[in-house]
Amino acid sequence: MSTEEPISVLFVCLGNICRSPMAEAVFAHTVKKHNLQSKIPKIDSAGTASYHVGSAPDSRSVSTCKAHGVPVKHHARKVSKNDFEEFDYVLCMDESNLSDLKSIKPANSKAVLKLFGEFDPEGERIIEDPYYGGTQGFEHNFNQITRASEGLLKHLKLL
Ligand code: 4NP
Predict the structure, then answer these.
(1) Residues marked as catalytic
(2) Cα separation, 32 vs 46, whole angstroms
(3) Out of 55, 68, 70, 71, which residue is the most buried by the measure of CB atoms under 10 Å away?
(4) pLDDT > 90: what percent of the chain?
(5) Minimal-distance CA residue to ligand 1 atom 7
(6) Strand order in the sheet with 89-92
(7) DSSP strand E in the chain: where?
(8) What confidence score (pLDDT) does residue 2 get?
């Protein structure tokens, strides 16, 4: 695709408190590290479910990001049909997110809807729900998200 137009990216998971705010934070950090903010000025996250709307990210997501020097700032919100007009890329974590998003994506939307893990050069497509597991799940998510962030920038021909 053309890299002339600014690109916007929305990350989506179920609750918007664990994986997608981590993806938003890590991707924004990666974009900044490569001085690409003018190419990708809009990065956000949302959830398919509404039960955590308004909440700050899970403390385990925040501490994992902080341990790697990545700042996190977000309040959970629910994804909407309008997001498919607002964002060029809507990238989700697992197959359940993907099917939920397919069911709300307007037929005329040009947004690219994919698993974020499709951009992982190690080919780990699913970023598993870490909510009921231990902190090692968050660390694993972090490593996948870091690889996929670089992978997405390469796909966009920005690296
Ligand atoms: P997330 O994780 O989708 O990565 O934000 C979850 C957060 C909350 C719940 C499930 C997954 N929950 O069941 O409340």
Answers:
(1) 13, 19, 129
(2) 21
(3) 70
(4) 97
(5) 15
(6) 42-47, 8-13, 89-92, 112-115
(7) 8-13, 42-47, 89-92, 112-115
(8) 46
Q: Which residues line ligand 1 (CB under 6 A)?
A: 13-19, 51, 129, 131
Residue 107 DSSP one-character state = T
Which residue's CA lies nearest to atom 12 of ligand 1? 15
> Could you report the per-residue pLDDT of 40-99, keeping only the tens digit for each?
999 999 999 999 999 999 999 999 999 999 999 999 999 999 999 999 999 999 999 999
Ordered domains of the chain (ranges, CATH): 8-155 (3.40.50.2300)
- Quote the DSSP letter at residue 4: S
Closest approach atom of ligand 1 to CA 17: 5
| pLDDT of 3 over the 70 cut | no
Buried/exposed 41-68: b ≥16 CB within 10 Å, e otherwise: eebbbbbbeeebeebebbebbbebbeee
Contact 6, 38 (CB under 8 A): yes
